[in-house]
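Why should sequence recovery work at all? Because a backbone constrains its sequence more than one might expect. Tight turns favour small or flexible residues, buried strands favour hydrophobic ones, and helices have their own preferences. The token representation captures these environments compactly. In the example below, the structure is given first.
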């Protein structure tokens, strides 16, 4: 019961970043589908075109939060708002992408492997055949789960950095009392 009350308080306080995190996940999945239907793997080098989505999600989340809660705009609060939005965006997006990949045969993993092998062949001329063989061995171990979990981890690491930057720039300093001496 106490856990439910704590969860309700959390959801009430952070409903804005939760909402924007879900919006970001939907936007990210639309971008995922666009990449997929254009013949690119969502985890290939083309996926960097969507790196703006978590940052924009966090920015809108912070802006709306500070508009609704102008008194509570400290660094730690804005960092938490941004991080919650990015965490939910990353988690929900990767969960949807994983389930979509399980339900539908998209060939996204094969497209990803083909691109990595193409780069490995170019690098193999410099580093040698042993490198290419080792890379091929590692590529056989790639699964849908490993790709989505890796993407989730990358989004979280980037999200922490983005959250620190946004919270630092958008925090409102408390007014200081100056003495008239």
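From this structural description, the recovered sequence reads:
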């Amino acid at each position: 019961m106490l856990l439910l009350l704590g969860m309700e308080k959390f959801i009430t306080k952070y409903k804005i970043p939760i909402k924007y995190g879900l919006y970001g996940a939907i936007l990210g999945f639309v971008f995922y589908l666009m990449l997929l239907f254009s013949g690119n793997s969502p985890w290939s080098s083309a996926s960097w075109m969507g790196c703006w989505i978590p940052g924009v999600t966090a920015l809108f989340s912070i802006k709306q939060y500070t508009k609704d809660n102008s008194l509570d705009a400290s660094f730690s609060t804005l960092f938490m708002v941004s991080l919650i939005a990015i965490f939910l965006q990353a988690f929900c997006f990767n969960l949807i992408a994983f389930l979509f990949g399980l339900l539908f045969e998209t060939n996204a993993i094969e497209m990803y492997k083909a691109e990595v092998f193409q780069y490995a062949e170019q690098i193999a001329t410099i580093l040698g055949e042993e490198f290419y063989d080792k890379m091929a061995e590692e590529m056989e171990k790639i699964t849908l789960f490993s790709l989505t979990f890796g993407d989730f981890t990358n989004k979280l690491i980037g999200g922490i950095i983005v959250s620190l930057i946004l919270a630092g720039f958008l925090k409102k300093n408390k007014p200081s009392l100056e003495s008239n001496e």
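A few observations help interpret the result. The CA atoms of residues 4 and 10 lie 10 Å apart.
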